[in-house]
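Supplementary material to the annual report.
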Amino acid sequence: MGTGGFMAAGMLMPMVRFAIDPILKTEAASDMVDIDMKVDDITTEPQMKKFKVHQVDGWYESDVEQAAFVFKNDKGDIVALSPVCKHLGCTVDWGTNPAYPDEFFCPCHAGRYYKDGVNVEGTPPLAPLDVYEMDIKDGKVFLGKPMPHPKA
Ligand code: FES
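Predicted assembly:
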């Protein structure tokens, strides 16, 4: 890029930033969602919690239903796992397979995950369940986006 191009890019950047800023702001505002769950109500048993996320996609706004399995792990930390199976996207359930009562089970192709969300080797899923970003405020749980599991 010549000097002219470099200068043009420099002049363009502030304008681009200005143009996309409102979209970024809207996303940031809806980042963490109150899922109407108190920390005191969370046990070591994963509970399925459904909640709505307000999404803005250009001019189109919608409320999208999402779900999380929320529980305390062995260390007492609160965990929120996405129930979306990493094989083909079915919804996993907790403890529904009598042979594996302490695991997440996907009924579509018998996918299995340990309680920490890690996929059981030899079953169809090739990655652990996603983990939600989380914030605890005033004794309540707020969730953000599902992110790749730290053990992925
Ligand atoms: S979609 Fe879950 S095992 Fe296939």
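The chain is about 20% helix and 40% strand.
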